[in-house]
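Write out this protein's structure.
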Amino acid sequence: MYKIVTADDHPMFREAIASVVRNSYPDSEIMEACNLDEAFTLVTHEPDIDLVLLDLNMDGMDGFQGLMRLREAAPSTPIAIVSAEDNKKVVLQAITFGAVGFITKSSPRQQMHKALEHILSGNVYLPSDIIRGNSCIDKKLSGAQALRQQRQTESINPALLSSLTRRQIIVLQHMAEGESNKQIAYTLSIAETTVKAHVSAILRKLGVKNRIQAVIAARDIDFSELSRC
């Protein structure tokens, strides 16, 4: 049984996401918060929360400051952003600040179920349609710390990228689309252990510490051009 917090200031949406959770995991315990303070109280007082589904624009959030506050208070509690935003830059910033996933409110119920399953299995979920998109309008985000963090996330050095094999580039592309090792193995018809070996090699060659950093660093890569090489 999962213990899941839905934090959103719109009652109708809280009920909608709770309905998706109940249909996907009938035995789950669902707790609701209508503002950041209520969410903060839950994550600091309720033990063993499996997932927080957090509205980015909820009362008290102040851009990504609310996410960072919750992450500091409960660093071991997974938090996924659920938002009406469909901006690639916002999605990647959410992951930079510690979110384990980003679910758009316009997602069909089946896609929300897939996202929940992905996250609760310990993976990072990114909406592949947004990550693949190239035309995103930048939006202002409050908080000087958010801007500093954004500048610290650099794109991949072309020299490092050239050190990857063709297969590793393909694996990196699937990683950037939010796929798990198991999904990549199925798509490429290779063993999951082989995928894990490729991922380890990719992290080492790109000089990043984890999968999330690799995904963020890969945000500006045009994989369609690389595939022609």
